C-alpha cells in the first residue's frame, strides 16, 4: 500500500537549486516504489542568506526557527501524510513534534545514530557547522547513545564548499576522507556525514566507505525508518507510546488555540 512522507528541510530549498535537485534524485533512488516523498523547506526569507548556519548555530534562534517544523508537522497530519520526517542533523523539536502527532515522526540525526549501531560498535559524526558539536553530543545522550559515539568533529570545510561540490566534488571528497580517517583513528566504526547536504553529495558520488569503515547514507536511514513505522502501524497496530510528559498528545483544539494566541493559526500557514 502506498505511503506519503512529508520531508522537512532546515534550508530554503528554493534558494539551493543543485541541492534541491540532488535530493529529489536521491529520494527517488532509495525509497520504495510505492513511497512518495514530498519535499518542503523553510519559508522564503527565513534567513538573511542561503546559509542557515549563521542562525542555527545559536540555541535560541534554532528554537525559534523550530516553530516552522511544528507548524509543518501539524499540517502534514492534517493533509493526510503517513509520516513526517525532520531532515536535518540537529533534529529540531523532534520530541515535541512526536508528542503532537498520531503519525510516525522520524529525525535525521536520531535515525542515523540508531542505524549506526547496527553497523559498528561506535560511530563518529562529521559536521560543517562546528558550533553544532555540543548539540549533537547532547542529542546522542538524550537518545541513550552517548557511549556509542566516539565524538563530533569539524569536517574541515563549510556549506559553500559543499554546494560547490555538486558541480566539482573531487577535492571535497578527498578532504572528507582525511577528516573521516581522524574519526576512524579515534575508534569510529561508522561515520555519519553530518548535515544533509554533505550526505546527499557523498551518496550521489558513491562514497559509502572509507578504509573499510561504512559512511552512512543518513537520508536513506530516515526514509527506511519512516516506511518501517508506517508498516508496523498498518500491519501490526504498533504505534508510539502515549503516556508520560514527553508522549501524551495534547487536545488538538487546544493546540490550535495556543498557535492562534501566538499569531500562528494553523489554517494560515503555507503548505509548501
Automatic annotation (TrEMBL):
Sorted UniProt keywords: Plasmid
Pfam name, any one: Asp_Glu_race
GO terms, molecular function: amino-acid racemase activity
InterPro entries reported in the protein's UniProt record: Asp/Glu/hydantoin_racemase (IPR015942), Hydantoin_racemase-like (IPR052186), Iso_Racemase_Enz_sf (IPR053714)
Q: Which domain of life is it from?
A: Bacteria
Instruction: Give coiled-coil spans as residue ranges.
Output: none
The record ties this protein, via PANTHER family, to: PROTEIN DCG1
The record's comment on protein family reads:
Belongs to the HyuE racemase family.
Q: What name does UniProt use for this protein?
A: Aspartate/glutamate racemase family protein
- Taxonomic source organism: Polaromonas hydrogenivorans
Q: What is the lineage of its organism?
A: Bacteria, Pseudomonadati, Pseudomonadota, Betaproteobacteria, Burkholderiales
Amino acid at each position: 500500500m502506498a505511503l506519503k512522507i512529508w520531508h522537512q528541510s532546515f534550508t530554503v530549498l528554493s534558494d539551493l537549486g543543485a541541492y534541491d535537485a540532488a535530493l529529489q534524485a536521491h529520494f527517488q533512488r532509495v525509497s520504495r516504489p510505492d513511497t512518495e516523498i514530498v519535499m518542503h523547506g523553510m519559508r522564503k526569507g527565513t534567513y538573511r542568506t542561503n546559509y542557515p548556519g549563521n542562525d542555527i548555530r545559536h540555541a535560541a534562534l534554532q528554537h525559534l526557527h523550530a516553530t516552522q517544523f511544528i507548524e509543518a508537522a501539524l499540517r502534514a497530519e492534517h493533509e493526510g501524510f503517513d509520516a513526517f520526517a525532520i531532515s536535518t542533523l540537529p533534529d529540531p523539536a523532534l520530541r515535541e513534534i512526536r508528542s503532537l502527532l498520531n503519525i510516525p515522526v522520524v529525525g535525521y540525526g536520531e535515525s542515523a545514530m540508531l542505524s549506526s549501531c547496527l553497523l559498528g560498535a561506535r560511530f563518529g559524526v562529521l559536521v560543517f557547522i562546528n558550533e553544532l558539536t555540543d548539540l549533537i553530543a547532547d542529542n546522542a545522550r538524550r537518545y541513550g547513545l552517548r557511549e556509542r559515539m566516539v565524538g563530533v568533529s569539524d569536517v574541515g570545510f563549510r556549506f559553500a564548499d559543499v554546494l560547490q561540490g555538486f558541480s566539482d566534488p573531487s577535492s571535497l571528497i578527498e578532504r572528507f576522507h582525511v577528516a573521516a580517517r581522524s574519526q576512524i583513528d579515534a575508534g569510529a566504526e561508522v561515520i555519519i556525514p553530518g548535515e544533509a547536504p554533505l550526505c546527499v553529495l557523498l551518496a550521489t558520488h558513491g562514497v559509502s566507505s572509507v578504509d573499510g569503515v561504512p559512511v552512512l547514507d543518513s537520508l536513506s536511514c530516515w526514509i527506511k525508518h519512516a516506511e518501517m513505522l508506517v508498516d508496523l502501524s498498518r500491519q501490526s497496530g504498533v504505534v508510539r507510546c502515549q503516556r508520560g510528559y514527553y508522549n501524551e498528545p495534547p487536545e488538538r483544539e487546544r493546540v490550535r488555540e495556543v498557535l492562534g494566541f501566538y499569531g500562528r493559526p494553523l489554517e494560515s500557514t503555507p503548505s509548501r
